[in-house]
TrEMBL record:
UniProt keyword list: NAD, Oxidoreductase
Matching InterPro entries: 6-PGluconate_DH-like_C_sf, NAD(P)-bd_dom_sf, UDP-Glc/GDP-Man, UDP-Glc/GDP-Man_DH_C, UDP-Glc/GDP-Man_DH_C_sf, UDP-Glc/GDP-Man_DH_dimer, UDP-Glc/GDP-Man_DH_N, UDPGDh_AglM
A Pfam family: UDPG_MGDP_dh_C
Binding sites annotated in the UniProt record for substrate: F156, L157, R158, E159, K212, F257, L258, N259, S260, G261, G265, K327
Matches recorded under Gene3D superfamilies: Cytochrome c1, transmembrane anchor, C-terminal, NAD(P)-binding Rossmann-like Domain
PANTHER family: UDP-GLUCOSE 6-DEHYDROGENASE TUAD
Protein name: UDP-glucose 6-dehydrogenase
Annotated catalysed reactions: UDP-alpha-D-glucose + 2 NAD(+) + H2O = UDP-alpha-D-glucuronate + 2 NADH + 3 H(+)
The organism of origin for this protein: Halogranum gelatinilyticum
Highest classification ranks of the organism: Archaea, Methanobacteriati, Methanobacteriota, Stenosarchaea group, Halobacteria
Amino acid sequence: MKVSIIGSGYVGTTLAACLADLGHTVTAIDVDESVVDRINAGEAPIHEPGLADLVAEHAGNRLRATTDYAAVRDTDVTFIALPTPSRKDGSIDTSLVEMGTESLGEALREKDGEHLVVVKSTVVPGTTAERVAPVLVEASGKQLGEGIDVAMNPEFLREGHAVSDFLDPDKIVFGAEREAAFATLRELYRPLTETTDTHVVETGLNEAEIIKYANNAFLAAKISLMNELGNICKEYGIDAYEVADAIGLDDRIGSQFLNSGVGWGGSCFPKDVAALIAAADEVGYDAQLLKAAVAVNDRQPERLLSLLDDHGDVAGQRVAVLGLSFKPGTDDIRESRAIPVIQGLLDRGADVVGYDPVAADRMRERFPDITYADSAAEALRDAHGAVVVTDWDEFAALDEEFDTMARPVVVDGRHVVGRREGLTYEGLTW
Ligand SMILES: NC(=O)C1=CN([C@@H]2O[C@H](COP(=O)(O)OP(=O)(O)OC[C@H]3O[C@@H](n4cnc5c(N)ncnc54)[C@H](O)[C@@H]3O)[C@@H](O)[C@H]2O)C=CC1
Ligand SMILES: O=C(O)[C@H]1O[C@H](OP(=O)(O)OP(=O)(O)OC[C@H]2O[C@@H](n3ccc(=O)[nH]c3=O)[C@H](O)[C@@H]2O)[C@H](O)[C@@H](O)[C@@H]1O
């Protein structure tokens, strides 16, 4: 099939490269010329394992990029993979999706034949039917079901595993109102559904939209629940990881996403949980459990720092922050727990030295005045304490580096550094 994709970020580029790999002809549309140039040059505009190879293989062949929305006319399906950021009150801002839809609709005015518009962005219930569809109808001059239609196909990929998650998903969700839209989506995903044992869920637009939020809210709340249990365990001197291993053996609980510690960050969990709380508020429901999940998450960085405080005042002392990205395998620092941790240390008057294998440059934009080390060893040297914020594998291998600390105290927020002689070790929940 001929597919166009509006927005070439984490989701759009992964979708574009993977659909090209599945045999479709794909046009990626982005307003950012540098993104377009990179894709056309066979380079991935974002870092994801396996993505550069796919872009290099298909660019100039089944994959091309442009800034020109007119390119959608030569395609059968357009995905909208534009950002849906949080507003100050937590609700999502759909203005980029609506602007993109308007440009798309205007371009489709001159197109003959059927066209399906698929919302890939994460949007609250009602967005596709009540915001995207009316803008599309108005801009294109066409009626739904008569030359044009809308569908919703949420994305569940994780950063750092985007390509493998897309090509081997647990489930694919199609939301639509008419059979023709479902048929197009089935055809598009056929190369995947025929070769993997993925489940396909066919449902309505609003249902597809909320399934995405329910998925993320469940996972975020699961981590917060484990953090709550972990905090209780810590007070009793019990290792919460032993407890998690045991409860995870119950199939009804499952062993994944039970890693307690300094909490969840990233571009999606915080934004999506806030958006669901705000959407619930709007329809008159007070989402108490989700609010509590956020409150527990917000508290973890301060709990980490109070464990460090127990070992002495850090004012005027060098303190190492190991890990700056929101999780290992990425340089993404959006909503990283390292941000409140660094801020908390600065508020205490500490002299902060941060280290991350890939995310230091990004964190430098947020905290230009702290020191950045080129290695964990350098960060630890002469430090009066260290906190571990990201579970990079290399931190598990640290050993003699701790001997160079002025005061060898480590507070581990990710259960990654081992206990060793000569080191005062504190686990956040163990
Ligand atoms: N990042 C992730 O891991 C996941 C994100 N999502 C959702 O997917 C959506 C997109 O997120 P990301 O891919 O992370 O965004 P992103 O910020 O990585 O990329 C967005 C791209 O859209 C482009 N853009 C902005 N306005 C445009 C316009 N009017 N026309 C064309 N291009 C335009 C930007 O230049 C940028 O390249 C969001 O709703 C997000 O919640 C869903 C699942 C996973
Ligand atoms: O909507 C999205 O964008 C995506 O959000 C998450 O993916 P992602 O944010 O890339 O990363 P995760 O691996 O889920 O980790 C999120 C945060 O939770 C933390 N986490 C994760 C697991 C765990 O057991 N404990 C824990 O604290 C991580 O350190 C990280 O800060 C979801 O896992 C994806 O399914 C979803 O598509």
